[in-house]
Amino acid sequence: MALQDVCGLHNPPLFPQWTAPLSRSFMPEDSTHLSGGGIHGEAFSTRLPGRGGLSPLEFYMPIAEYLTESPINFGQTSLSSALTKLLEIDHLYPSLPSISLPPPTPCPISPSVPLPFTLSHGTTTLGFAFQGGVIAAADTRSSCSGLVACPASPKVLPIHSHLVGTTSGTSADCALWKRILSRELRLYQLRHRRRLSTGGAAKLLSHMLHPFKGTELCVAATLCGWDGDEEKHDVASTPQHANAPTNQMTAIIYVCSDGLRLQGELFSVGSGSPYAYSILDSSVYWGMSVQEATAVAREAVYRATYRDAYSGNNVDLYHVTAKGWRRRERENLKEEYYREKERERKRRVIAY
Amino acid sequence: MEYLIGIQGPDFVLVAADNVAASSIIQMKHDYDKMFKLSEKILLLCVGEAGDTVQFAEYIQKNVQLYKMRNGYELSPAAAANFTRKNLADYLRSRTPYHVNLLLAGYDEADGPGLYYMDYLSALAKAPFAAHGYGAFLTLSILDRYYRPGDSAISITRLNKRFILNLPSFTVRLIDKDGIHDMEKLPIGPK
Question: Which coarse location class applies to the principal site listed for this UniProt protein (chain A) (predicted)?
Fold first, then answer.
């Protein structure tokens, strides 16, 4: 595997330092200065606390780090003991090539400690598949206990060239986990020389979020992607009949931090999702054109922002095809609102 | 709102589960399969809390398959049921208990068909018929009244159609000595 060749680490279990105590921590990423083809005792990077002796192929969970390094420590009780306990366990089994999830945080965030501000999950995001690919759309309002914290936040985040994820829940959690997912997918691509499918990415995200079940972490993402190689895009350009997504490579998977993972053709997530669902259920069909699909997605988000207080401002729209994702320019829904008011006014004038 | 049912016959087990995956008031999927195939002749039906069901059921599924790879032969339904119960019990008093209700249905060469009822408190009972969910309140009494140990498959399917509540559709599967068979998906219309 590429990384292992570069690092010169062919047999991690034989590597003496993996079983060394915590003080001689090893940073896998810094191992480029190790000469290849052999295990050497010297040329270590400086000690790095909090990393532990993880083999380069283990997925690194940043749980311990972000909890202790966060400038605002709220809701965490006696984490230092938890930290050392976590790292000790890592050292007992350093040579496991499998994904090792650290045990659930020994001290869960106690509900009696109040958070500095209420977390709210107001948003409208949606994703659906049709013959021309996948559309992912979302509003751009970030709300925080009754006020608009940011009117222009991106809620559809590209993860790699053929995968976008819509995010709902806590903005910070979503941003963090989207970045972690991007990193892990890139590592997978480097190691195995192929892109991980959307289903695999969803399963990976779901398993990474599982240790946090029961905590305040809230991530509800819809991964919308195109699987398969670019050479197969001619399959997609052949006209698809009404309900035949059989050789289509699209995949839409809803992943939630409480563990739910669902694959489907149409999902909408967030406080505005019921409003969006009603528009989408009536208008989306497999054979629609790209313009139609874009219009329906835009309309669904607009209607949701009209009714839902926690959704609003602009709409972001991404279209994923065999060639990758394309972003439509962000559109301010205020214009659409006034346009509709104008149409309504004209219609009323004509009627009387 | 989720529903599972299993009925054991003389040489088969019939199981059915609803197809809804819901998140609060929204039905996110209407064709969701709640049955997990543990081996050629064992099915695990799993309902409960959102993430726990898939997580736990897949864990059991992979472990049963690992057993087969390591030892060359498959776990019997009784052994698989006890293994599942043991895992549920181990996690029950941990920090992450799994809130899942299960039905395990299988056909053993030596013992014949078997249906095992498990709940989230890791109770295990081998039963001739069992159900989970609010629908169980309605169907168990009918089964108590009409179940005969020697019932044939056809009469039981008819019984199935009669008492299912207004959940839109169900996946039905039959396990006998030849393995797992998919039966027709039951959409519920006015009868």
Answer: nucleus
pLDDT tens readout for residues B106-126:
999 998 999 999 999 999 999
ipTM here = 0.77
A107 touches chain B (CB under 8 A): no
- Cross-chain residue pair A274–B25, CB shorter than 8 Å: yes
CB A196 within 8 A of CB A189: yes
Interface test with B, best of A121, A128, A208, A213 (most B CBs within 10 A): A213
Q: How far apart are CA B8 and CA B5, in angstroms?
A: 10
Determine the residue of chain B that is closest to A265 in CA distance.
Answer: B29
Q: Dump pLDDT digits (tens) for A67-84.
A: 444 444 444 433 343 444
- Chain B environment of A214 (Cβ under 8 Å): 95-96
* Residues of A identified as active-site: 123
- Residue A215 touches partner B, C-beta closer than 8 Å: no
